[in-house]
Amino acid sequence: MSRDAAGGRVLVVVPGTADGLETADSRGEDDVSAGSEGGDSRNRDEDMGGDAADRGAPFLRGGKPVSDPEAGAGEEGEEAEYSDENGPAKPSDRDGSTPGAGGSAGRPCDPEAVLAVLEEELDAEVVVRCGETATEYVSELGPTLDCVVVLGDDRQLIHDLIEEGSVTTIVCEPPVIGRIDDSVVGEDSTGELVERVRVELQNDLTRNDLRESNARLAALSHYAEDITACETVDAVVDRTLEATTDALAFDYCVVFLVEGERLVPRASALPEPGVNTADVTEGIAGRTLASGEAEIVEDIQSDPDAIPEHGDLHGGLSVPIGERGVIQVASTDRDAFDERDREFVEILAGYTREALERIEREVTLRTERDRLHAFFGDLPVPAVHVERRDGVTAVREANRAYAGQFGEIEPGTRLSEVVRSETERRQYESALDTETVTTGTVDRTSGDDAAGEFALSVVPVSPPGTAECAYGIYIDQTVGLLDALSFRNACD
Q1: Are residues 202 and 254 in the same domain?
Q2: How many domains are there within the chain?
Q3: Residue 308 DSSP one-character state
Q4: DSSP code at position 414
Q5: CA dihedral 302, 305, 310, 314 (to 10 degrees)
Q6: Structural domain contains residue 222
Q7: pTM score over 0.85
Q8: How far is residue 20's CA from residue 29's CA, in Å, rounded to a whole number?
Q9: Dihedral of CA 239/242/243/244: which sign?
Q10: Which parts of this chain are annotated as the region Disordered (predicted)?
Q11: Is residue 113 part of a domain?
């Protein structure tokens, strides 16, 4: 389904020991200043064994320490902490005031101001947690997050988030803004932070779209095997409906098939009342069938061709199944479908069309075979049905006249065991090889051991997708001559 490119979920980790944001509004301006410069930092330093208080310790990026081993305490050491691929931050960049919400350089950023900007600039859900609960939150709900923003330089927290490794972590301690593995110095720290978060949201959206597409394709491939293996039309439409609701996760769907001049709903996952049969030219389905092109409908209720049956359904997607029908998907939301949805349903419709075409061919072949078999069985002259598989020709069936003239044949008996001469065998093989009718004369012995001469015609009949087949028809030349003489005498 379509989704806004903005959006997503961002976890913002603020200094403190309780979830939620403590600002000047809740504890007074002096307390905020004191807590920022002393209380919170000292508490975290004690909890982490003094690691965070060691300003000369390496700043973790990408799970690795980044520092200048020659750097000492003081200004030179701080430059090493925030070094990036463009070199260490200049002292002038860290002194003085940083415009925006960052406050003075070297001091922790103002969480209240940063959060206000993030919520204003980003169309995303902003979740606020303190450092003590942030790692647990990421561990449990990491897949629902697009990125984590840490306001400050809490080294142990940064290390824990790196170890967790499930989402991108962005650190904000003006004037340095950046991902764990890439820091930059900017004049507008909060603006740079917003841009970095926006980029991560878009990147995560792209990754999520790719994962969703791969998951849908994998699910469709599973259903493709099921659909193409179906033996009946009912089974095909039922599996198509399941694929639409399960693999593609659409709530409402109906599968129409063309029957004569009508579009008949053969499978439906729509609310009551049910969908009615319509003329092949009526409704959005009729329009789709006529154009042969899939279409996305922003609002079914306002479409001039729609047949209103469900007032709570709005967004629609209508995809043809070749000339055999239409798959329609609907949603209670307007403009609910995008091009990706269209492509996936088109793939599914292709599987359905192939399955229906195969079943139609098989039905046609079975009908033809049944008619031919009936004709074969009722022939008044001896005839056999032979089949060649893997180079071996065998008798599949003999009709009643053959059994009465030459005796019964066990189905599957090799042709070489049935025919009495090499000439007769070669005539069958020639018809199968050339796919043309062959004629000749062969000697045969009847069941009463009476020898006779028979005219043999071998007619190849090999429907597509079947083995090589042929019918051999025997006509007794003696009977034919006697009939001719009787006819002449009658005329005289």
Answers
A1: no
A2: 3
A3: -
A4: B
A5: -40
A6: no
A7: no
A8: 17
A9: positive
A10: 1-108, 426-446
A11: yes
